[in-house]
Design goal:
2 domains, mainly alpha, 4 strands
Length: 380
């Protein structure tokens, strides 16, 4: 009758010893601390300040064949824009040469009949030439030019005491990220990449490290059970990963001023769920490979690169080919990126949160089932 409480007490003691051993191993290995706490800061500052999908200070050539009041008014609209750095050229040939030599990324050309056609028929097209080498930059630049042109037309019509004649009046409303800052989109998604790096990459080394150092044989002859070994490996890295996540959220919220419109508790729960998935992937890789170098390479290829490329963190999944879109459903980071971007920018949108959380829970169950199946207290 007294053996079962004693067994439970022995299991707790063995588990505490295993957790303590793993924490000591982490403290003795500076690379683990660096990946958990230094790497998130480096990545956040790199993507927060160094990487931007916005077009700012675009060098723009302005050419007016016949300068007058009307052309000066339009060109001032580009000069006062925060999106352009204007350069004036006397003729279109010089401006085109500047475009070829990459001194400017676009040209706005007002031909000599601009004012005459504007006053006579209100039909005065402008010439726009954009460098299309970077297709995304070209589309954004073209949109900014059209916006500046439309704004000037509205002011011109108001100065003439008449309404702007247009068949369609567009009143755009941008939800969730009204300022269209790419930083607000990138930084939340980066949390998924960082947690994948901490959870999967570090955990992929823990069992392999024991095999390489010959300490796994010593563990095999102790009374400790395989589930206690696995828990002892997982608990420290779960705490480490959640600590890295909290550091990332603090920096995202107060350093980069990304709004958190959803519940912090939901963010914490979703992060814990995703961390379990990442730990399950890493532990499975570690059990299968039994070699630290091989385990690290597999973890980068199987977990980190898909989280970076196929999760929607940077590249829009809807724009990918159909076969690649199908593959993204196998990437856990896809679901977590959707959750964190929704919680940060939109709020507690349950039709988005619940299906993605359900997918993560299913993946966590599958990975840990595979881990339990593959893990055994044997030397073969």
């Amino acid at each position: 009758m007294n053996r079962r409480p004693e067994a439970r007490g022995g299991a707790r003691t063995r588990l505490r010893g295993m957790v303590r051993k793993e924490f000591l191993q982490i403290l003795r290995d500076p690379s683990s601390i660096a990946i958990a706490f230094v790497m998130p800061v480096v990545l956040l500052f790199l993507f927060g300040y160094g990487v931007s999908l916005d077009a700012k200070d675009v060098p723009l050539a302005l050419v007016a064949d016949h300068p007058d009041t009307n052309t000066s008014g339009l060109l001032r609209a580009f000069e006062h824009s925060d999106y352009f750095t204007p350069y004036h050229y006397a003729d279109i040939q010089t401006a085109m040469q500047a475009l070829r030599t990459q001194q400017v990324d676009g040209i706005v050309w007002l031909r000599e009949d601009f004012s005459r056609r504007l006053l006579s028929s209100a039909d005065a097209p402008i010439g726009v030439i954009v460098n299309g080498v970077n297709a995304n930059q070209a589309r954004i630049t073209e949109g900014y030019i059209q916006g500046a042109w439309q704004s000037w037309l509205e002011h011109y019509a108001a100065a003439q005491g008449r309404e702007l004649e247009a068949p369609v009046m567009v009143e755009p409303r941008v939800w969730f990220n009204a300022a269209l800052y790419s930083r607000h989109f990138l930084v939340p998604g980066l949390i998924a990449v960082i947690m994948t790096l901490i959870g999967a990459l570090l955990t992929s080394l823990v069992i392999a490290r024991e095999w390489e150092r010959g300490t796994m044989e010593a563990l095999m002859v102790t009374p400790i059970r395989i589930r206690e070994i696995l828990l002892g490996k997982l608990i420290p890295y779960f705490i480490l990963g959640m600590g890295g996540m909290l550091l990332t959220v603090v920096l995202a919220r107060w350093q980069f001023e990304v709004p958190l419109r959803g519940s912090f508790l939901l963010l914490l729960l979703a992060s814990a769920l995703f961390m379990l998935v990442a730990l399950g992937m890493g532990l499975l890789i570690s059990i299968v490979s039994k070699n630290q170098f091989v385990a690290g390479q597999i973890a980068i290829i199987v977990t980190f690169l898909p989280a970076f490329i196929l999760s929607g963190f940077i590249f829009d999944i809807g724009s990918m080919p159909a076969p690649v879109q199908f593959i993204t459903h196998l990437v856990p980071a896809r679901y977590f990126v959707s959750i964190v971007q929704t919680l940060f920018l939109a709020g507690d949108i349950w039709p988005v949160l619940l299906p993605n959380a359900g997918a993560l829970a299913l993946m966590a169950a599958v990975f840990f089932a595979l881990v339990r199946r593959r893990a055994s207290k044997r030397l073969d």
